[in-house]
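pipeline/complex-builder :: batch 7 item 3
reading input block
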Amino acid sequence: MHGGITALIICAVCTMLTAPAGAQRTVPDTLAQRALACTTCHGAQGRVSAEGYVPRIAGKPAGYLHRQMLAFRDGRRAHEGMARLMAQLTDDYLGELAQHFAVLDLPYAVEADRSGRAAATPAALQRGEALVRRGDAALDVPACEACHGNALAGVAPGVPGLLGLPRDYVLAQLGAWRSGTRRASAPDCMARIAQRLNAADVPAVADALAARPVPLRIKPADTPPPRWPMDCGSTAP
Amino acid sequence: MSAARWRRSLVGTAVALATLLGVLAGLARWGDDADDDADRTVPSMPASGPDTADAVVRGAYLARLGHCAGCHTARGGAPYAGGRALHTPFGTVYAGNLTPDADSGLGRWTAQDFWRALHHGRSRDGRRLVPAFPYTAFTRITRADSDALFAYLRALPAVAQANPPHALRFPYNTQLALGVWRALFFRAGAYGDDAQRPAAWNRGAYLVQGLGHCDACHAPRNMLGASASRLSGGVLPGGRWWAPPLPDAADPVDPAAAARHIVELLRTGRSDIGSASGPMAEVVFGSTQHWRDDDLQAVATYLLAPPRPARDADTAAPASSAQLEQGRALYDKHCADCHGLQGQGVPQVYPPLAGNPSVLQPDPRNLVRLLDHGGFAPATAANPRPYSMPAQALNDAEAAAVLSYVRQSWGNRASALSEVRVLTLR
């Protein structure tokens, strides 16, 4: 008994002494381990709070994520850091990474971003809400809900959800589409929609989207709507 | 000053300027117009036939060796259709369209025109090309390789994409300035085998000095942008990255280990002791991973043949113990999970930092880039699913401490970094 304890202690001490230098650590052979550079900014497991600029990637449709990574790499979306990160990665590997983040089903414990609402006029709030729900027939702009799903949770595989995004992020994306620095696959519906909006509509719709309550689980719809309101490259099969 | 003196001084200046221009023009002509030489009479290759099919295959490989697409393809653009901007200290130049489009590409070029561009640095219409196109290296390419490359480019789908005009500052945007530059820094000349050397050495020399144009990054450039003949390392335009000397004193002393490191790094983007990052990751991804093994071995043979420079280990200034203490604490917290408490890394996954040539460079700027940006190793055929390093949010003093610790631990001996040095490198 006594000898056993002594042996145990010796073993433990030996392990402590040799583990750091000698033992070859095994690194998990997983995509989560490979993608540590992604989660530095997008949050552990691809979640991120609404306070920052960086959008959540966990649970977004795989096709959408893949297209975005290709767009950053090939210059259709402008972000220096993302472009640098993707520059020497292949289409296939980016597809694997997209799939990895898409299937993460994590509770969405973020507050809605209501930072823009304090400064907004009641008319602007109403306008933003109207664009989200009904669009504007006069401007030939469909409702956000018409493509991004009634719950705004996105539609697999190509259309992203719009809930839980930082207001500044939504604002910047609409601005980038208006100026042509963000481009989606042709026909680029979002560019057309953003360019048809009045300048004041952009913050209105960003406020409305960012302020939507964020449910704990957001799952993109599996089936597309019976009819897409526009012919879009990102919903093409 | 009187009106007469004004006039005299004006006339004097004008005469001086005219003389200077005359001298420069003379220099320009003397320097590089001896190039329209007898090789104009070299018969061009046949337009089609079995020889051409073979040439296209060879040319495709040669285009990989030269990494032509690296400059001649815009981000996300059609391959070889040009348009990528290269920022130089003299302004921005745009790589041209190499596809066979008649108006915007090489559609009207002959193999002779193409040879003249590679060998003499002149365009089809005789204009002097800007030396951002590395004809100072490509002049060593053989006529047979030039013809094969041209055959490959002719076989590409034609893409109508006009070349943006260069945006160079005066006087660098003038043909006269290019003439003077050529007179000073360029002589057309073929690579001649050194009969005293084995075939592999000569092949390596041909690749490194010619198509590979390694000197574009790995040699220092003078004030006028001309590369030195020795590959003694250089800071890339923009100052963000340092290209190590070739051969590198920081590589393993054992020649077999050094050769293994060079070949593996070029083939896979990583080796037992390090990994490619920044612009070299781009070169590995776009070019060297596609090189044949015998060509990679030839490069190692050539680079490792001369006596290698000694490591400057003993002259490296030691870090203060306070800085090393801070560095160790930061290292254990931020770096040790992947790179190991002893800087040993994890084979095939995370590069070691002990003995890693990138860590030991006298110029530490790449390490600051790596800390700030992190990133993936290039996704090569041999390493298609690379692991990545997260960007580290460290302030100047912290970055200096952790880098100094890494550069002076586990047998590493390289200079320490001060907070100010990191600041100037950021």
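note: Chain A has one domain: 34-229.
queue -> next item
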